Amino acid sequence: MDLEKLFRPKSIAVVGISKKNSLSPGRIVLLKNEFEMQVKVYGIYPSGGEIEGIQLYERLDKLPEIPDLLVIAVGPDDTLDYIQECSDLGIPSSVIIGGGFAEIGGKGRKRQEQLQKIAFDNDIAVLGPNCLGVYAPPIVDTIFLPTERITKPPKGSVALISQSGGVLVDQFFVKFNERNIGVSTAVSIGNRAVVDEVMLLEYFSRVDPETSNIAFYLEGFNEGRARDFLELAKVSEDTVIVYFGGKTREGKIATQSHTASLAGNYKIIYDALRQHYVIQPHSERELLTCLKVFDVLAKKRNPFGDNVITYGEVAIVSVSGGHAVLASDMLKKYGLNAVRFSHQEKRDLKDLMNPVAAEIASFNNPIDLTGSVLDTDIENIIRYLSDVERIECIILLLLPYPPNISFQIGRRVANIIGSKNKPVVCFVPYVAKYSMIIESLELANIPVFHSIKETVQAVSALKQRTRMDNLKLQNLFGKEK
Amino acid sequence: MDLEKLFRPKSIAVVGISKKNSLSPGRIVLLKNEFEMQVKVYGIYPSGGEIEGIQLYERLDKLPEIPDLLVIAVGPDDTLDYIQECSDLGIPSSVIIGGGFAEIGGKGRKRQEQLQKIAFDNDIAVLGPNCLGVYAPPIVDTIFLPTERITKPPKGSVALISQSGGVLVDQFFVKFNERNIGVSTAVSIGNRAVVDEVMLLEYFSRVDPETSNIAFYLEGFNEGRARDFLELAKVSEDTVIVYFGGKTREGKIATQSHTASLAGNYKIIYDALRQHYVIQPHSERELLTCLKVFDVLAKKRNPFGDNVITYGEVAIVSVSGGHAVLASDMLKKYGLNAVRFSHQEKRDLKDLMNPVAAEIASFNNPIDLTGSVLDTDIENIIRYLSDVERIECIILLLLPYPPNISFQIGRRVANIIGSKNKPVVCFVPYVAKYSMIIESLELANIPVFHSIKETVQAVSALKQRTRMDNLKLQNLFGKEK
Question: Does the pLDDT at position A263 exceed 60?
Fold first, then answer.
C-alpha cells in the first residue's frame, strides 16, 4: 500500500463541512489547509456555494481533479459510502476522523470490517477511523482542532506515530515544543483499521527521507502484526523507539474502550522489542529525552565525530555540589559509571582553575567547580577532560548563577566541544533569561536538558543507541564485527 | 537558641565587602538588602567610605546599633574572629557564607569545632558555614548570587530547608516559580555547624506563623540528631516533608566532599521517618507535587470543606481517551483506585451529555468525554460525580483543544467545585495561551498540574497526608480515635 499520497498529497478534498457551525471538524480541516498549509484543498457541500471565499463542490465527482486524499468528517454509515466512492473514483488515500467503528463494539465492529474489505480490495490507504490523521508540515494537516488552540512542534527528524490523538497533540506536541524536538510527520492512527504501525514503520524507514527517528506511542500491537513489526524494526536504518501506554490492569480497561486494542502481555512484548533493537523508554519523560537527543544529533550527522558511548563512562562537571550529588545518584540506575580520576589528573584539574575556586573546588568525579568559577575555568576543564580517552561523555551541569559566569559561556563551551568532538550533554535551567546560553549550545547541536534526570537519561539513551546500532550491524554483516 | 533574629532581623551588618570587585559576595549581599529588601543594612569596610551611596563603617563596634544578624563573607580564619566579635558585642545571629571548614577536613574540621564552641557557649544562632543562608521575603536575603541571575519563588506556606545552596536556588526556586509554589522562608544550611535541621524544624513548627509545610532537602541527618528530629516531626502541627539526595554509593561519595555529611543507611532512615509521620516523596518531582498541592490548600484552609482522601477512591474525567489511559495506568502505583460505576450511574452520566458526545463518549472510569464535549457537559459531569459519596477525589484532565470548550471553563469548573467541596485535582497543559483557564482554577485554590503523572501524584500526596494527620491525632489523643 502506497502511503506517499497520504503524507505528501498534492490535493485533498474534505467532506463533512457545516455552513452553520464554524467549529465543525470538516470545516476546520478545510480552512486550516486552505490558509495554513501548502496542499490544494477542495470542500464538498451538497448544495455547493462557498465558505470564506473557498468554492464548495456538490459532489466528489464534480471536482476538477481526482484528489490524492479524502478527509472524511461525517457519521460512520456515510463514511462507508465515501470510502466506496474513493474506490469508484480512484482516490488513493483517506483520513477518517469520526468514530462509531470497532471502538464501540457490536455493529461498529461490523462496519470496520466492511471498511477494511473495501480499502484492502482497492488498495486505499485509509488512516483511522477515530483519529486526528496526519500532520505533515508544510504540506497537510488533518487535525480537526483549531491551530490556535494547540501547540505545533518544530520541524525535525522524528516521525511520531500515536494511537491516541489526544496524547499526540497534548503530551507530544506541547512537550516537543518546550524541548525543541523536531517532527517530520505526526500521525494519529486511531483504530488503525487499514494503515497500521507496520505500514508506517515501513514507510518512514524506507521511503521518507526527512525521518531518521521513528517513535511510536502504542497501547498494544495491532492483532497479528507484532512479528512483522519486529522484523522491520530489526533492519531499519532509522532508530526505532516504542513507548507503551496501558501497561497496568486499570490502564488496559481504559485502553479497551479507547481504541479497541488489547494491551497484551507487556513483559513478552518488551523482551521481543529489545531483541529486535527497538529502544524502549521506561517513562514518557524518558521517551522525550531520547527523542530530544536523537533529534539534536540528527541535525548535523555526527556532531561528536566518531565518538560513541559504548560503556557509559562519564565525567560530571558542575558549578553546584548539590547538583553533582543528584546527578551522581542517578548514574547507576541508567547504566552509567563515573570514571575515577588519578591523583595526577586531580592535580592537573586543580591547576587549571583560578586560585580562589581551586582552593574550594572538589576534583573527584563529580567535579564541583563551586560558585567562584570563571568562564575560563569551565573551558579549561572541558578541554582537559575531552582529551582523557577513557571518558566517553561529559555531563556538564551549567548553572549560570555564579556571578562571574558570562552569557558567552554557552558559545565558549560549544567551541571547545566543536574542536574536540567529545560527547557533551548539558543541563541548563529552563528559565527564559538563560535563552542566550541555551540557544548558543543548541545552535551548535549540543543537547541541552532542563533537568538533571533528563541529562543523565540522555547519556543513557546514547549508550543504548550505540548498542542497538552495533547489534544491527552484526546482524546484517554476520556475527564477526 | 532563638532563631527569630536570624529570619526576621530588624537590622543586619555585612563584612567582606570589596570596593573593587562589584561581584564579591559581601557586596552583592549588601546591595541587594539595601535596594531589594526591607531590613536595615550596614556595611563594614576597614577604611570606611561608601558604595553606591551606602555609608560603610570601619568596624562592627562603630555601628549606630547592635545588628540582629551579621553576614560574614570573608576567609575562614577571619570568620572565627568575627564570630568572637558577635559574642563580644552581643550580636545574636550570623550567616557564614564562606567555606574552609569541616567540608575540607583536617584543619577545617578543627576550625568548625572552634566555631561551634563560641556559638554554643554564647548562644549565637550561626547558619553555615559554606551556605547561601536565608531568603526570608520581604525582610532579608543573604543569597550572594545576583537577584537578576536567579529566579525567586512566590510567597507562600512552605519553609524550605536545603543542605545544598545550589539545589535550593536552581532545583527549587526555578521549579517553585514554574509551578507557583509559595515559600515562607528558604534556608541553605551548608555545614550546619550550629543551626541544623532539628532547630529549624522546631522554629518553623512552633514559632513561624507563616509556615504550614516544612520541607527538607537533606543528604543525611546531622550526626546524633536523627532522634530529636523524629520526635519533633511526630508532634508537629505542620506537614513535614523530607527528601534525601545522596542515596546511592556514587551519590554518597559526592556528598562527602560536598557538605561533609554521611548519607547513612537510607532504608533505616526511611522507615523511621515514616513511623514519625514524615511525608517522603520518592523523587524530586514528587516532592514538588506534594508541596504544590499542600501550598495551594494552605492558601485557604479547607478549600474542599471537610472532605479528605482516606482510601484513594478516584474518578477520572478526561476529554482525551489517551490521557485517560495514561492516568489509569498510574493509579495503582500511587495507592489509588478507580471506583466502579453502576449501570445506572453510567446511564445517568450519558444522559447529562450533549447528544453528539453522548454517543461516542465512554462512561467507564476513566470517563472519556471526547473532543465533542461542551463546557456544560463538563459542568454536569463534575456536579454529578461530586454527589457520589464513595468518590473521594475527581481527577479532571482538562485539555482545552476541543473546539467547543470555552476559556470560561476554568471558572465554571471552579464554581462547581466551590459549591460541592469535593476534592478535584486538575491537569491543564502548561501552555501560555491557557493561562486564563489555569489562573481561574488556581485563584479558586484548585490545584492544577501540568503533567498527568503529577496530577496523580498530588492525589496520592493528599491521601498520604490524611493518613499522617490521622496517625498524629491518634498519637496525641491516645489510641482511641
Answer: no
